[in-house]
Amino acid sequence: MEKKCKNCEASIISVFSLGDMPLVNNFLKKKNIPHEKKFDLTVGFCPKCYLVQLINIVPPKDLFRNYIYFSSTSSFFLKHCEELASSLSKKLNLSSKSLVVEIASNDGALLQFFKKKNIKVLGIDPAKNIARTANKNGIMTIPEFFNHKLAKRINKKGIVADLVFGANVLAHVPQIRDFVKGVKAVLAPGGTAVFEFPYLKGIMENKFDTIYHEHVFYYSLLALRNIFKSADLEIYDVKMTPMQ
């Protein structure tokens, strides 16, 4: 069956396959290992919009509804979050009147540092177990998948963001056009969206551990420009980080 690009619906060309692989972060008892489910892990390329993507996907609800990774367990990541909150606050002139919305905010590892600066924050994360922890810690978090429908619902309540942030989420969203429309809907006029994600160059350097079922997309700047343009958003700054 011919596979279509998840961005522009052109036909995808298969370019690389790791075969059938089990899901990451899926810890099993020894007796269950022989029965572990495996899923195809083939990467394709769209010759029309240049987006590199998995040919077949695992439904996000099967991957993210009950998530075991808590961001705050990594001291290196927390240091990165603190520096990021400081640099973005200065660059975008954020104040007590500003709002930062983080998509896939996990346990609030980043948002806590904006909150310490007296900047209003709102997290959105589909992992209900992690969202509960974030809310208990004083980081208001909506336990849902972010999409255009949710963004419009938030927008009707008068919530608009001066900064929308997402770390390691842009590669996880199969409905990418709907997602960026949602980003546009929740942004204040003149607002900025910042995303961190694995860059396609890593695969070209044989870093194949970047390829797993959570990562639906492997972005080049050219492909991203085409995606964001569809939502009337423009890329105006790019920076490589050492985080990964």
Structural class computed from helices and strand pairing? alpha/beta
Oligomer: single chain
How many E-type strands? Answer: 9
Reported for the largest beta sheet, the result is: 5 strands, parallel
Strand content: 15-25%
Rg measurement, Å: 18 Å
* Shape annotation: globular
Instruction: Summarize the amount of helix as a percent range.
Output: 25-40%
Neighbour order of strands in the largest sheet: 6-5-4-7-8
Number of helices: 8
* Average of per-residue pLDDT values: 91
Poorly predicted ranges: none
Amino-to-carboxy terminus distance: 35 Å
What is the helix/strand order? Answer: EEEHHEHEHEHEHEHEH
Structure description:
- The two termini are 35 Å apart.
- 29% of the residues lie in helices and 21% in strands.
- The chain has a 5-stranded parallel beta sheet with strand order 6-5-4-7-8.
- Helix 5 packs parallel to helix 6.
- The protein is α/β, with parallel strands linked by helices.
- The mean pLDDT is 91.
- The protein has helices at 60-64, 75-91, 111-116, 128-136, 148-156, 176-186, 201-204, 221-229; strands at residues 13-22, 38-45, 52-54, 99-103, 120-124, 141-142, 161-167, 187-196, 217-218.
- The chain is globular.
